[in-house]
């Protein structure tokens, strides 16, 4: 099973805490997206992240995003376990389920240490 490093795990929890403290939904989504990028190799963190995304989508009454998050919840852990996930993907419906994306420079630097 693939796991994230202790440093990546700390970064993930920092992004999740920033999400909770954020003042706007757009800010919350930004932190959840960053946490998603970090969480992809770890089945547990990846699934937790999509759960948080689903909760935010439901709070915003965004049906399209909520449905997309339900689908992602189903495939998150298996994708992490098999290593079949699109690196850098933000985890949102607009990003596409299997679309790789560039990893933000600050996250890439932190994850490569």
- Structural class category: mainly alpha
Largest sheet: none
Task: Give unreliable regions as ranges.
Answer: none
> Roughly what fraction of the amino acids lie in strands?
under 5%
What is the helical fraction, as a range of percent?
55-70%
Beginning-to-end CA distance, first to last residue:
21 Å
What does this structure look like?
With about 110 residues, this protein is mostly helical. It has one domain. It has five helices and no strands. Helix 1 (about 5-20) runs antiparallel to helix 2 (about 25-40). The protein is globular and about 40 Å long. The model has no long low-confidence stretch (mean pLDDT about 95). Pfam families: DUF3703 (PF12487). It comes from Mycolicibacterium austroafricanum (Mycobacterium austroafricanum). This is DUF3703 domain-containing protein.
Give me the secondary-structure topology:
Blueprint lengths: L5 H16 L3 H15 L3 H17 L3 H20 L22 H8 L1
Helix pairs in contact: 1-2, 2-3, 3-4
What does this entry show, briefly?
The chain has 113 residues and is mostly helical. It contains five helices and no strands.
Distinctive features:
5 helices, 113 residues, 0% strand, mainly alpha
